Amino acid sequence: MKWKKETRLFIFLIFFSLVSVFPGYGMCQELFINNQGNFFKDIINFQISINSAPNTIHAFGFDLYFDSQILEYEKYAKGNLLGQYELFDCIQLEPGKLRCGGINTGEGTILKGQGGNIINLSFRKIECQKTTLCINNLVDDIENWEAEKGQFFCINKKRER
Question: Which residues have a Cβ under 8 Å from the Cβ of 132 and sit 6 or more positions away?
């Protein structure tokens, strides 16, 4: 009987340690940008997605910050969730800062519980270094959402065979 209590305590301590070491692991943010690794490519593609919308979205906006010494913004394409959005754009306000937003008053609005891709972003790799892409300044119907950062990992050495 005593062994079972110690085993349960041990399992609890391991779980608590993992949660402390990896905060956010297993937690789902509503809005996130994927991580991307690079193996000798010049163009890097990221997706900004919604996990499960906690509310209906008629209008939204956010800023995306990135290191302009490592990545250079090229273009965007609307994702599958924005197919019928009347207005959407993503512009570069300055090097390292994009502002993206959209509005829809008709059919095709993102409904509560929906998930998927809202935008595909293409960047040109300038320098091969690790960097973080941050979604900030959420407004309108997503202003109270949590946003998860994305990472760019670059490997510039050829693998030996």
Answer: 66, 67, 149, 150, 151, 152
Model confidence pLDDT, tens digit, residues 7-46: 544 443 343 333 333 333 334 579 999 998 876 788 999 9
Is 71 in a helix, a strand, or coil?
A: strand
Task: Give the CA dihedral 62, 23, 80, 73, nearest 10 degrees.
Answer: 50
Residue 161 forms part of a structural domain: no
Cα 152 off chain centre by: 11
Note the pLDDT tens digit of each residue in 72-112.
999 999 999 998 888 999 999 999 999 999 999 888 789 99
Beta strand residue intervals within 6-42, DSSP E: 31-33, 36-39
CATH number, position 82: 2.60.40.680
Report pTM: 0.77
Domain containing 98 equals: 29-155
Is residue 21 included in any domain, yes or no?
no
